[in-house]
Amino acid sequence: MFRQTAFGIALSTLVLASGLTTTPIPGHTSSNQSTHNQPLSIVSNQVALSTTTFKTTALEKSVFDQINRYRAAKGLPKLTLNANITKQARIHSQNMANGKVPFSHQGFERRVKAIPLIYNSAAENVAFNQGYSNPAAEAVTGWVDSPGHLKNLKGNYNITGIGVAANQQGEVYLTQIFIRTGRTGIVRQK
């Protein structure tokens, strides 16, 4: 007779959607040019309980701190956290965690347009993982190891927002939006 334990054990999984970058094109009706990279999936043999719960605001702070440490180590200026950008990143992570939108960059342009800032360029990194004790560190490591995501991390951006959401299945969704503000650019108002 085969017995299964009462608690779920899952292999840890990290999935990164393509790093997305947009840059205004002067003189064109369409103001953004997108570049996409292929999704990256990393499965680890690390085993963890699937019933883990996370404090999402602590994970957001952890991602922010790790990204700024990485940028400082590479001689890049640190990013400033922006509440309006964080709000949009959180909404996207919550929508992915709740299954309202697929794990993707779907709606990126709408998210950026909803941020009331003058900006020159924008980018987004998203990650999904499950089974890791530190999902923020796993996402950042995955982004650093992925050329498209790394391009965004090292990009000429000055402000950012990070949103993290988890669901009852222990899936953790992370969204980081990068913005370069400036005196010239596109004005987005609500």
TrEMBL record:
Keyword annotations from UniProtKB, A to Z: Signal
Alphabetical list of SUPFAM superfamilies matching this protein: PR-1-like
Ranges where the SCP domain occurs: 65-178
First and last residue of the signal peptide: 1-17
Name of the protein: CAP domain-containing protein
Organism expressing this protein natively: Komarekiella delphini-convector SJRDD-AB1
